[in-house]
Amino acid sequence: MRVLVLTFVRLGPALVYAIGAVFAASMLLLAMYPSRPFAWALYLTLLPVLRLPLVLLSVAGMGAWELLAAFALMAIFGVYLTFHPKRFLRARFVHAHVALLGLVLANAAASTAAAGRSGGSLPGYVDWSLPLPTALLGTVLIIVAALACLFTHAEIIRRIRIRASIDRLLAHRVSLH
Fold first, then answer.
1. Which residues cross the membrane (predicted)?
2. How do residues 4-23 score in pLDDT, each as one tens digit?
């Protein structure tokens, strides 16, 4: 059961990127079939969750096809990392944190996009609260990506402790001889 839960959590960032690929596909569907209600429903469902990463990637000159390919490759890479957990810990760390930061930034941009601000409009005021998405999908994605980050941190700390205990044992063994 533990292995199944860890595998699901490790798949979290890949799920984020796969949802990004679906969103890029929805943009393509909307461009090809603008009168289809399904294309609009899919696009408008995913827009609040993934708005900012798409804006950042489009600034880099990526179109919808390139965006779809980039997200799909990142999702495939995440699946590969999930099933090789011992081998690529640093890559899993970066993969999970980029997914989490992208989601948090997307929701921060979506939550501050308002006509006026209530309270906190004092000069120098910084709102440090975590903007949670209004969509259930966004909340689930942030939780799963945060768990992946947390488990990656725990594994890094565990490896550091194991190395330290091995070094202590070796130092003790050398001092005995």
1. 14-33, 67-83, 95-115, 135-154
2. 888 888 899 999 999 988 98
